[in-house]
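Dock farnesyl diphosphate; give full complex structure.
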Amino acid sequence: MTLQDQIDKSRLPRHLAVIMDGNGRWAKKKGLFRSLGHEKGSQAVREIVETCAELSIPYLTLYAFSTENWNRPKFEVDTLMKLLVSSLKKEIKTLEENNIKLNAIGNLDALPNKAHRELLDVIERTKTNSKMTLTLALSYGAREEIIKTIKEISLKVKNNLISPSNIDESVINNHLYTRDLPDVDLLIRTSGEHRISNFLLWQIAYAELYFTDTLWPDYRKDHLFEAILNYQNRERRFGKTSEQLNP
Ligand code: FPP
């Protein structure tokens, strides 16, 4: 039986998030420029997006560029932005064919004009697609998102639109970039690093975390199937006891 056949289709993660790490190390190991690692990484993005759509995972969120990534050398930032534009141009067809809606979270105004325009264009063109929502986290940082949320809610309190006593989880959820997405069920990080790196801090409160040594450019559908099978063998208790869940 293949790995794919072993997956229980009725217990898939509803929201899968991925920290795609290791492009630079992949390139270094092969004596190549880091930009080639990112280029190879974008091919892995396509395979994983198509596989998630095929499995009918409704929400996939990819950490493509963090607020901290702006501090990388200008050449690398420029390369990543160019890669984003070329991937969007090229992959619109993949999104259309697979009925995937593109979404983006982060401080998108910080993106170069060309990347921002291309992104908004693909978001607009795919907005009625319904099989899967692919969210790209771009110029994204969870702390920045939380600060923005607190500022927006504070302003509403100041203008008497919300009473402090009514602030609950749903009020916070509705002010995050991810307001239209469910909580993350499974978070995968590649490349052997065991960190969250300022990604979706609020949204991963009850996520299962899965770390693999595979570098992102080498990540293939079988690696994803292994992660999902591992997730399906875990008991998600959400603070309850095992006996409460299995009376
Ligand atoms: C981390 O590897 C990866 C990134 C900072 C960028 C992720 C981008 C891609 C996978 C390609 C383009 C994506 C899209 C959506 C078109 P790293 O450079 O930090 O690797 P290292 O830790 O080995 O240096």
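Observed: The chain has one domain: 12-141+183-232.
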